[in-house]
Structures are given as structure tokens and as C-alpha cells.
Amino acid sequence: MSDKLSVGVARADMTPPVGIAHASWGAQTHERAVGVDLPLEVTALAISDGQRTTVTLSLDIVILWSEDDVTAIRKETAELAEIPEEHVRVSYTHTHSGPCVNRENWFEEGDEMVDAYLDSLVSKATGTALEAVESMEPARVAAGTGHSEIAVNRRFQRPEDGRMIVGRNPDGPVDYEVGVLRFDTVAGEPLAAVANYACHPITVGPDNDLITPDYPGVVRQTVEESTGATCLFLQGAAGDVGPIHGVAKNGIDEYRPLGRRLGSEVARVWWSLDPRGREERYVETLESGAPLAVYEYDYDDRTEQSHKVVSYDLELPLSDFSPLNEVENDYEEKMAELHRLRESGARESKIQAQAMECRRAELRRGRVDTFGGQSDVIFELQVFTLGDSIAFVTIPGEPFVEIGMEIKARSPFEHTFFSGYSNEKHAYIPTFENYENGGYEVDTTPFTPNTASIVIEETLEVLQRLKA
């Protein structure tokens, strides 16, 4: 059987109802979304070589916290498409201005809408995946890279006391590389675009009560308006990287310009790629007012592209944790105080301060509930390759940008699209050097300092085996 490339793409609206529990910032004083600034979407990309088929889903959501929801999407998609579950990838753009979808929210208002929304989202994602599979047609592919500077390292030591906070550190590591894939039909019509970039979608911060996909949604809009291809956005290794504007305040005015900047670069690269691989040659001269060179093109019209899949268990070491009952009691006490302040009509500043304490207590509780009592945890490394030059590499959680940069630099595949924010489980994965200065990401990670090196080396071993 020949390795004939086929590709399908599909899209559905996944915007939640107004009134749902919104965002998850500790500093926010609102609980419900009061409107929609830009719709949220789920995009599916199906790829097959005639022997193996994969489906990649990209959801405009911070993450699906419940492993049951992720498992349901992967399992139902696999059954409908008649493919293995490990051939299905669920990824998140990681927007922080979408719904708060933990089925055990710390919100008192809007939480009653979450279960119904998630149930419908599972069905919608599965249906979109199946639509992409059913729409597959023969295609060609080309890959390239661009450059965009809408991101900056976000681990900032504030000058007054050196405390590590989420800000902007222009001297810290950042990955400006934009990975781009172009898929055309065999007739040369635009089919799909894939954009891979590492930047936390936190442009729109805690002062906003509107639903938005943050800059990734505008990236898709911009690419699709320029190319006519459906665009799927894959978040990169953005654990310690954020946008150059917005975040704490006024981000609602900033995310569209950032998205247009990045989207314009994706579109520029997309147009520079030629899936047919044509080569120009001179054939004759046409005498005119000036002698004009006449050229013809030779095309590489092959559509063979082998498609390989690996799902590999990364065994990652965990730190020690406080007892679960201790962190649960702390969370309940803080939530009771927040409820009292809201009921008594306390000042907004007091509510904001207590909400922050509740959010941090919730993070501690979630970490212990998920990882407590274990010495290690399995994170799924998922790799899809296309031909001998393209590799999609993804892991769960929030890997620091240095992890993605090193894997891409050392990968045997010319075009390596590295992502976090996928499938089941969630936690920051800092690099060893960052533990010394602490900060939000280090303080909340369950992992030991050597975890990043394990991720890097074992990922590269898998890539080398696939390349061989």
C-alpha cells in the first residue's frame, strides 16, 4: 500500500453561554462571564498515509482538568474513526479568558453551568474530529519557519526585593520561532494551515469579564483571511513565556494587535511555501520591446508521505507534599471567608485579596489531590511524524520554553513542532536553573528539579528511533 497523504479539517463553535464561571485569576473580582468579545472554537486536523490516521484537536480553553473528559473525547473519536486512542491528540490553546471548567470549581457563581457545558463540549469535539476524518482528501504538504517577537520571558524579579513574579524579563529565554505547515489539495487549493508558537495566552487578564480566545483566535482569523486555509493553532512550550503587552490590566485592547502580528507572519510563511515543490528552468527568449526570458516549471507531484505514531510513557519524579486533609481544610477555611466577605458587601479590595488566597489554596489542593502519595507520575509523550522531515511532539502540562527550544534544536527532524498543553494531567515543568529563584511556576510544580532533563533526553531518544 502506498503512503498517499490525505488531510481533512473541520471547525465548530465552542463558545460557552454567558453567565458561566469565567477565567481563573486569583485577582479577579467577577465570577461570571458577562459577554463574548470573540467566539471560542474547536478545530480538528485529520492526517492519513493510507495506513495510519491521526486526529489533532485544538480547543480554545485553558485546559480540560477532568481526565474523564479528555478520555471520553479520545475514546469516542477513536471508536468513530476506527483508529487507536493514542492516535488522537487533544490540545489546548490555553486561553485564560475562557470558561473556568474545573468540575470542582472554587467559584460560587457560574459553576452550575459548567457540567452541562463540558458534556456538550465532549460531544462537539468528537463530532468535529469525525467531520475532519470524513472530509479527508488527497493533499500535499510543505513546512517552514518564521519569526515573531510578540513573546517575552515572564519570570521577572521585581527591583524592590528580588521576588520572582509574573512580569516581563527581556533578558530571559524566549522562542521567537514560528512553525508553519501548509496543506493544499492535489488541485492546488488551500486546505489547512498549522501554526506553532510559544506564548502564554494571558494577554487578557483579571480585569476582563468577557469570553475571548486571546491572541490565538486572532491568529486563526488573520491566517484564514489571507490564505483561505483553515488554521489550527498549537501552543508551544510556554511555561515561562508571556505576551509583550497586557496581562495584569487592559489586555482586552491588546490581544487583537498581537494576534494580527503573529498571524501575519504565519500567513507570510504559508504563502512562501510550495507543496508541489516546483523548480523553474529557462527555456527560450521571447523577443519583445525588450528580450524576455521564458520559463517553465518542473513539479514534484508525489503525494507519498509516511505517517508514524508513538505514544511513550515519560516517568517523571515527584516532590513530597503536605497531607491532603491539611490542604483541603485550608482551602475550605479560605473559601468560607470569601463567601462571608461577599455576603457582607465588603470592599472590592478585600474580596480581591481573599479571592487570591482562595485561588492559591485551590492550586495547592489540586496539586496534592492529583500527585500526592506518589513518587512519580506518567506523562504521555505523543509523537506524530510526517515523512522524514516533519514531527509533531507533544506532552501534557506547561513545559518551560527552554525545553521546547532544546528539543527542536537537537531533533533529527528538520521541522519539529513542539507543544505542551495536551491530553491528560497538568503541571508546570521548570528547568533546573529556575528552581533557585522560586516564583509561581516553581512554587506550584509537583516535579523535582531534574524533571526537565528527563523530558528532553527521553523525547530526543524517541525522535532518533523514529528517524532511523
UniProtKB/TrEMBL annotation:
Any single Pfam family the record assigns to this protein: Ceramidase_alk
Residues that, per the record, bind Zn(2+): 94, 200
Cofactors (names): Zn(2+)
Keywords: Metal-binding, Zinc
Source superkingdom: Archaea
InterPro entries hit by this protein: Ceramidase_alk, NEUT/ALK_ceramidase_N
Residue spans crossing the bilayer: none
Boundaries of every Neutral/alkaline non-lysosomal ceramidase N-terminal domain copy: 7-228
Record's cofactor remark: Binds 1 zinc ion per subunit.
Protein name from the UniProt record: Neutral/alkaline non-lysosomal ceramidase N-terminal domain-containing protein
Protein's organism: Halorubrum trueperi
Organism lineage: Archaea, Methanobacteriati, Methanobacteriota, Stenosarchaea group, Halobacteria
